[in-house]
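REQUEST FORM: STRUCTURE PREDICTION
Request ID: SP-0412
Submitted by: Lab K.M.
Chain count: 1
Length (residues): 602
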Amino acid sequence: FAIDSLKQLAHKFLVKEELTNYQFQREFLVPFETILLKNLKRNDIIDFLINCVADICRKSGKNIKSGWKIVFNILGTIGKSISQEGILKSSLMILNEVIQMHADCLPEFLEEMIGCLFHYCGSPITSIALLAFDKLKWAIGEASNPDSATIKAFETHYKLKQEPASASLGAVTPEKKIASLAEGPSIVEEKLWNIFLRGTQCLVLDKRTDIRLNSLNLLFTAIKQNKFTKNFWETIYELILGYIFKTFIHLLEEDLKNADYVKIAVNNAITIFVDNFTILEPHTAEVIERMGRYISPTEETVAKYGIELNKVFFDNILSKFKNEVCWEAVVKSFQQTLTRTTPQMLAECTTTAPKEDGSMKLNFVEAEVNTKASIHLRAVHIIRTVLMKDCLRNIPIKTSMQLLEVLFQSYNFAYAFNRNIDHRIILRKSGFMNYSPQLYSLALQEKETLLGYLGLAYEIYLQQAKTKEGSAILDNIWKLMKKLLEEHIGAQIKSTKKTSAEEKKGFIIEQRIEADDGFDKQAEHKRLVFGMNSIIADFVLPIFQKLPAEVFASQKGEITNMLLDLIVSESIEIRMALRDTLKFWLKGSILPQTDPIFILST
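STATUS: Completed
RESULT:
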């Protein structure tokens, strides 16, 4: 009865139109809001209040001015605090009626109206939330259209249209007005878009797939279709882009079912960041660092998605880099990633005493080592296939040298492990190397990093050929190639070694002891030779074709001896690569017909 009496008084009060610059209506309608806040657990009272508000809006809506604020406060509180579907449906219906029937009265309350809609979009009742999204799309569409009557009225309310100044100060021309607006966010950006961005920021993390996909789609569509001032892009980065780059990794870590959603969100954020790189460039180092965190060193599946997202990011943005700061951030990120994912415990591991069955237990978790090695290899692959694809000539020399060092450290780790025969036999005896992809991963790691190192080193040499730095790089390339060839030839000899009569007895005893457990060093050398075959055939021999004539001439004697040893290799791919290299030298008339290599080639 008391509430109904209050409604009757409100009708009588609203018969007269409110005077400009007065707030009597808002003060008179406040009791309705107070009653609601004190009775949020009383569905009967809430339902009656909704009917009262609906009756007031229908009968006296044309005269309401400042009172709309209280109407939206009441409806927004219901949307935010109530979970009863019937009440939510009724209140949302009233909100729709208000927007449809009194749109011309609402421009100065667009902030409250959009905020109210966001409360319903976050409703625990999914059907209610989806209905609210339809109305929110309309509101955002209005905000996106600078020519709409609603937005023009909204701007007028905030006195965006300036009155001409006094004659002494001179009139404010349209040109001056545009210039002043360009210095900072417009009123629409400050008021409406700010509310929209903050509201959507909460909804994109909703647990319900429908809700967060709707909010994400609405958000990115609105951002892509609208033009914002430079200053407001800072707000967009802070509230949306930076927020996604920073926090969505946690969704991936919490549940892999979120992977597709995270990919959509991050890919859209990447697209917007790249498209507006000129404005957002100061945030590049921060974004690169945050993207690096997506490459988890402990969870392979999470890291797989992180690698994929990083690849998309670098594929799109590297060509836009114009300064050293961006490139240094890239190298630093990959350096941290490779450091985090290097399986150091593999090289430092020890084993316990043999058990009764002869097996040995390792002092590390095999799955963790495998995960790190796999992620490390994927990161190296990004460096080689993306970072070095089209951008080598754009990378500053200083940064190129840093990247070269990063690749060389990764290569050295894999190289040292793959050559430590005794250590590998221990791992095999523990059962690790027999069933683990680890051996294969480190062989690939050595191969990938070597390819990246040689490619980058040769590119640096071409840029610095006439300098001391260029000569030093070329010398390093030659030393590394020589070392690999010598080592491959040595391992090949050991893997096929036939013992003399004097050595045979001791050799057979040693082999028998090892064979008892199924392990022998000759077999390990064979595995090493097999792993190096593609490195020699695919990388080392082709590099010989790129050596400058003077380097070739100075090292001709050593090259001749090594190629003579390689020509009897059991590997078809090495023999074919050797043939191609010799053909290249003959075709270029580099060698006189009396030269040993010429004779070998023919």
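NOTES: The two ends are 112 Å apart (CA to CA).
Reviewed by: T.R.
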